[in-house]
């Protein structure tokens, strides 16, 4: 029996041991789904605290069901460790680590390189390695493959390598890791077949195979760049509508009535999360290697990056109408998470709004039912209780995240003025003269 046949048999009869490197928003849900499918899973993370929480059955990711994790741990189906030598025990391993940008908006693939080097130390024949971290086209073949082949093992013969981009939308009530379609591109046809077989045995969504890792890497960048550019378009429309005295939210609702050729995107205080504000810049960086300047992507990035500053400028104008300067005014922000009904602070535009407000000496406080406290730029922030007194005490209340838990009638009734950057107050009928929308 060939190396490929032996690995496929292990995957099909679920005797394969699965490793997941990185137990964050992508890795932990994936590890849980693989364990639920009947595979023994070993999770790897550099944070001992995360490993301890997993091994105690304590969940820290919103899209994972607490009871499911606890049950899988109790049954011995999932175990987390900081000991990367245990990669020697696994047959298939997924790399689900962060891929941030540095301060120059260039890709930082340090976590990918470090994880691959850790895997290479224990790489063995008949092993599948899948990179899931979003990155620039070429990473799998130009960075990951050479590190693994330094062991003397040959990709496509001794071990198998593929790229399958993560698709995680925190807080999405319908599409989860389990039922979201998955794209898979292997270095060779055998690599693609083996990786696709594993995902078909774990997930319910369509497994769509492509001809190479580069195609899979590029399609992920296209997904997120599409959203980035369309959000930038509607943000620019919001800025123009504000100057023209037109309600951009009404404009969007009207445009949505067209049954073809239009997809609704909405303005806001800026982009957040790991993917949309970051991934397009991976492509702009890679494009320079081919002597191409991705103008549209970079302009979209500039518009979206400007939105937190625009929010603060408009807040200043609102306060000015009340004969108050922004300097010294009490500003209450509602929502710290980058999107509604989650506890994810990554790249949240609220953080940039806070920075701009504090540069202008505003007295900033915030409330978020999902994020009781956080530290940013060395300063610690604690969520204030959302009471009648808190609202009345603020000179301006800015809705930066439209959490469903908020009682917007209560908020508008008690606030002096509400600057709504998310159209969260659209159903509020009374005191609408207090509401100013983006």
UniProtKB/TrEMBL annotation:
Per the record's keyword annotation, is Protein transport included, yes or no? no
As recorded in UniProt, its EC number(s) are: 1.1.1.22
Q: Which UniProt keywords apply?
A: NAD, Oxidoreductase
Q: What Gene Ontology terms for biological process does this UniProt record contain? A: polysaccharide biosynthetic process
**In this protein, which residues make up the domain named UDP-glucose/GDP-mannose dehydrogenase C-terminal?**
332-427
| Top-level division of the source organism's lineage | Bacteria
Top-level EC class: oxidoreductase
| MF (Gene Ontology) | NAD binding; oxidoreductase activity, acting on the CH-CH group of donors, NAD or NADP as acceptor; UDP-glucose 6-dehydrogenase activity
- InterPro entries linked: 6-PGluconate_DH-like_C_sf (IPR008927), NAD(P)-bd_dom_sf (IPR036291), UDP-Glc/GDP-Man (IPR017476), UDP-Glc/GDP-Man_DH_C (IPR014027), UDP-Glc/GDP-Man_DH_C_sf (IPR036220), UDP-Glc/GDP-Man_DH_dimer (IPR014026), UDP-Glc/GDP-Man_DH_N (IPR001732), UDP_ManNAc/GlcNAc_DH (IPR028359)
Pfam families (UniProt xref) = UDPG_MGDP_dh (PF00984), UDPG_MGDP_dh_C (PF03720), UDPG_MGDP_dh_N (PF03721)
Q: Which family does it belong to?
A: Belongs to the UDP-glucose/GDP-mannose dehydrogenase family.
What is this protein identified as?
A: UDP-glucose dehydrogenase
């Amino acid at each position: 029996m060939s190396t490929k046949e032996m690995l496929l048999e292990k995957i099909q009869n679920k005797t394969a041991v699965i490793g997941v490197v990185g137990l964050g928003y992508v890795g932990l849900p994936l590890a849980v789904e693989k364990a639920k499918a009947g595979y023994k899973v070993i999770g790897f993370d550099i944070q001992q605290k995360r490993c301890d929480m997993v091994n105690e059955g304590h969940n820290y990711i919103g899209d994972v069901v607490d009871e499911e994790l606890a049950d899988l741990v109790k049954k011995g189906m999932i175990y987390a460790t900081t000991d990367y030598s245990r990669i020697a025990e696994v047959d298939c391993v997924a790399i689900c680590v962060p891929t941030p940008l540095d301060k120059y908006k260039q890709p930082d693939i340090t976590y990918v390189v470090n994880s691959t080097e850790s895997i290479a130390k224990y790489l063995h024949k008949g092993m599948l390695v899948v990179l899931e971290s979003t990155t620039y086209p070429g990473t799998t073949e130009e960075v990951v493959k050479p590190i693994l082949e330094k062991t003397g093992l040959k990709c496509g013969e001794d071990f198998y390598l593929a790229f399958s981009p993560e698709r995680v939308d925190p807080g999405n009530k319908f599409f989860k890791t389990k039922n979201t379609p998955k794209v898979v591109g292997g270095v060779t046809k055998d690599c693609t077949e083996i990786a696709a077989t594993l995902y078909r045995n774990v997930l319910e969504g369509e497994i769509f195979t492509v001809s190479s890792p580069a195609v899979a890497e590029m399609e992920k960048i296209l997904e997120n760049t599409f959203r980035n550019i369309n959000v930038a378009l509607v943000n620019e429309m919001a800025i123009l509508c504000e100057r023209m005295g037109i309600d951009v939210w009404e404009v969007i609702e009207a445009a949505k009535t067209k049954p073809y050729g239009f997809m609704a995107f909405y303005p806001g205080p800026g982009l957040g999360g790991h993917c949309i504000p970051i991934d397009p810049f991976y492509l702009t960086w890679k494009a320079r290697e081919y002597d191409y300047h991705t103008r549209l992507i970079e302009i979209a990035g500039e518009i979206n990056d400007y939105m937190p500053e625009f929010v603060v400028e408009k807040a200043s104008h609102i306060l000015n109408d009340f004969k108050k300067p922004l300097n010294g005014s009490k500003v209450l922000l509602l929502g710290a998470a980058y999107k509604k009904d989650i506890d994810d602070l990554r790249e949240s535009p609220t953080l940039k709004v806070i920075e701009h407000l504090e540069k202008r000496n505003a007295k900033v406080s915030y409330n978020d039912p999902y994020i009781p406290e956080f530290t940013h730029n060395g300063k610690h922030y604690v969520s204030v209780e959302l009471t009648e007194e808190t609202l009345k005490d603020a000179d301006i209340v800015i809705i930066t995240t439209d959490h469903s838990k908020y009682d917007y009638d209560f908020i508008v009734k008690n606030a002096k003025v509400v600057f709504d950057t998310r159209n969260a107050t659209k159903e509020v009928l009374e005191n609408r003269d207090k509401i100013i929308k983006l």
